[in-house]
Structure formats: structure tokens, C-alpha cells
Amino acid sequence: MLTAGGLVLIADTRTNAGIDNISVYKKLHTLAESEDRLIMLASAGSLSVTQSLLSLLDEGLPAEGHDDLPRTMANVPTMFRAAQLVGEALGEAHASIAHVLNGSGIDSSVSLLLGGRIGDGPLQLYLMYNEGNFIECEPDSPFLQIGELKYGKPMLDRTLQWNTTLDEVVKVGLISFDSTMRSNLSVGRPLDLIVVPSDRKKQIVKTRIEPEDAYFDLLSDEWGRRLHEARSAIPDPPFLPEFQHP
Amino acid sequence: MLTAGGLVLIADTRTNAGIDNISVYKKLHTLAESEDRLIMLASAGSLSVTQSLLSLLDEGLPAEGHDDLPRTMANVPTMFRAAQLVGEALGEAHASIAHVLNGSGIDSSVSLLLGGRIGDGPLQLYLMYNEGNFIECEPDSPFLQIGELKYGKPMLDRTLQWNTTLDEVVKVGLISFDSTMRSNLSVGRPLDLIVVPSDRKKQIVKTRIEPEDAYFDLLSDEWGRRLHEARSAIPDPPFLPEFQHP
């Protein structure tokens, strides 16, 4: 989620190879963090391709000039160039396993969220498709999703705006994840969360919400209770005869 | 939705063959209605297969004995037998176009909801898969969905229970559809709605919610406003530093 107040990235940590083979893997990675930049990547889809991609980005891609350094997240000049480099690395990761998977029917597709800022640039957020092409998040739709996205999207569509304050953005994101986790067992806590305020004087927050997180449990319970209240408060359908009412 | 209070069926009416070819077609059909029975069918998926299925059910399937009448919704003895007959007719409908579609790559799959009651039997609701097999709705999960189901499912998961009153069931269903219609353009008003109270002395309601329905607009606006309020009322995340707050 990218709003006026800042960038909020949330990812779950559940990976599965079938319903009977579930593990915890980090899906929200910090690719570069220094005085002049912060670049983060969230992934959905094939774990093996994602790990290859991360290793390739860590090593760096071949330099363009003879005497240049390998191209890495530590030296790309802009977030747009960072997205291009990730796209290139994703192509490499796919190519390196193509001959192994060829005809196997195994789905090796991956989608990514790339967010952060470089130098004096603004916070930016990109969604990268499996082929390495990408779109950028814009204020009219201030969020992008990957993976199991439908269950949690109505909440984001309905209540997230460019001027939503950063606390509220975090709450919306957690409520969206709560909806998804209730409907799909393959999404689960712990959740990783990074909050990067637009204001550089404000503190960056990185936290993990564990399976027994008191705040998340409160949020989930309160939200359920308030949904019930909200529904009850809406007038009854006029097309139902009076005697339907309790 | 099948609760203690009764059966509520809701279907949209939007059919599309691509984003540039959208029509209004009824998807909620009354198959039989008489003193002793009420049987309804909602459909999702291929329109041509659905129409063939309806025609086959109308004509009736071949009689089992020599002197028997064709088997129709008007003479099946139970809802279970009705579901079996619909499954059989669906197989026929698929078989009759199989040679046309063979190898064309056109998706002719269909899913169905069959609901109603026969004689002194209880209200029952079945979900039928494309192959003609089916499951029955039970009190632990008092709803079944077909078609574009994910956007609207969290609302149902969260607030629908076996003892939810019939007015509230209708509201939950409409809110669920509202979420879906906001996220997917291929779902749209008019909505068809049938409410069958368990109590046979109560009136059955059949209505269509048009694109400019004042109650639905009110429900949608109120729901949006109350979601905002609900979110604001939840305590702020404790892991955000104080100065994030506005």
C-alpha cells in the first residue's frame, strides 16, 4: 500500500507444497538498506524461482561496461532501474530451471512487489509479473496485491485512499490479511510488516506479527464484532413483509 | 444461504463473452412451483450449456419404466432425487455439444445451486459441480456459492450463522454481492432474489433489484460508511511509534 503518508508492505510466511506440506518461509525481503536507499521485495509463487532470483540479485547481474561493477540493488540509480533489474534477474532465474521443468507441468510462476526509495526520489511501489514486466502503483488505486488477492481486495477497494493516515493504512492491511487467512488455509501468520513513512524524519518500522499476537487477535475480534453491528444497523430490506422480522 | 429461518437465493444477471460483449440474462430460475413443491436453480458458467440443461429438464428425462412418465422436476419425489436428475441432465447437455466443442479450447463448464423443498421435506440446498456430482449445504457452513465467489466470501464467512434471522441473511447476501460487484465488472445488477421462509405460513418473496434500486444504494453507502467507522474505532497498532499518529 502506497499512500501520501508512506509505504506499507505486508506479507504472510506460509509456503505449501500441497495441503500436507506447509512451512514458514520469509516472503518479504530487504534487498538494499543504506543511507541513500531502501529497497524491499515481496514474493508470491514458486519458492525455488524466488530463491534463485534473490541469489542472482545478491551476486549482481553482469556489468554493462568493461570496467563497471556488477549491477546490484546497491548501485542502481533509480527505483525504475531497480524494477528493470529485478525483471532481468527473474528472466535469468526462469531460464536456469527451464530445461529441468520443461514438460513437467510444474507451475514455476512468480509475482513480486518491489517497493522503496533511492536518493532523493519518492517512495515507489511496483508489481512485477512472471514475465518480468511491471506496473507502478498510482494514487487512484493506492495498493497492489500478489498471490491470493481476491478475499482481501474488497476491504482495500472500499476503505483505502491516497490520504488515509499511516496508522489506518496498517489497520486496513491487517484486516485484509485477516479476511484472507480466514478463507484460505494456505495464507497464515506470522505476518511480516514494514512501514516506511514518507517523512524521512519519521522512524521506519519492521515487525513480525506472530501466531499469538495479542493486537492482531484484538483487531480480528473487534472487526468481526463491528461488522455484525454495522450489518444490524442497516435498515431492513423494504421488500420483505413485516412478519419476516423477528 | 440456508439458515434456520429459511432459504435465500441471490444471483446477478450479467453474462459476458468478453469485456466488450455484456448482456442481461436470468441466472436464477424456478424449475417447479406447485402446492407440494418449490424448486429453484441458479447457474454460473457457460450460458449455452445452461440453456440446454433447462430445456432438457423442461422436456423431462426418459422414463425409467415402460409406462412411466418422463422424469421432471414436477414429479421427482425428493430434493435428493431432483439433484440427481439435474446432474443427469447436465451430463446430457455436455454430451450433446461435446463433438462441437471438441478441441476448440472453449470453456463449457457450469456450476449450479439447486434449492427448494418437496412435500413435507425440509428446505435443502445443493451445489452441483460441472461433472454432475453435488454437495449439500449443512448448518456448520450455512451457505454455498458459485461463480465469482472469493470477493464476497469473507463477509459470509464472518457474519452468517445458522441462527441468523432471515432479514439479516438477506442483508449479508446483498452486502456480499456489493463487494463482488465493486471488484469484478462481470458481476452486475439487476440482482434476482428469492426468499423462502422455513415457516410455510410465511410469504415467499421473489424480487428483482434493478440498477437504480434505492434500498441497495442505501445499503452500499451505509455499509461503506460503517466500515470506515469500524476501522477507525479499532485501537492503533502498538508497534507504530506515537509520532506516526496524525
Summarize this structure as a short list of keywords or feature phrases:
five-stranded antiparallel β-sheet; four-stranded antiparallel β-sheet; alpha+beta; 11 strands; homodimer
Describe the protein.
2 copies of one chain form a homodimer. With 246 residues, chain A is an alpha+beta fold. Helix content of chain A is 33%, strand content 24%. Chain A has 5 helices and 11 strands. In chain A, the strands form 3 sheets. In chain A, strands 5-6-7-8-9 form a 5-stranded antiparallel sheet, covered by helices on one side. In chain A, helix 4 packs across helix 5 (214-233). The first copy, chain A, is globular and about 80 Å long. Chain A starts with a strand and ends in a 13-residue tail after the last helix.
- The overall pLDDT of chain A, averaged over residues, is 94
Our Rg estimate of chain A from Cα atoms comes to 21 Å
The SSE order of chain A reads EEEEEEHHEEEHHEEH
N-to-C CA distance of chain A:
42 Å
Looking across the biggest beta sheet of chain A, what order are the strands in?
5-6-7-8-9
Task: Give a brief rundown of this model.
2 copies of one chain form a homodimer. Chain A is an alpha+beta fold and 246 residues long. Helices cover 33% and strands 24% of the residues of chain A.
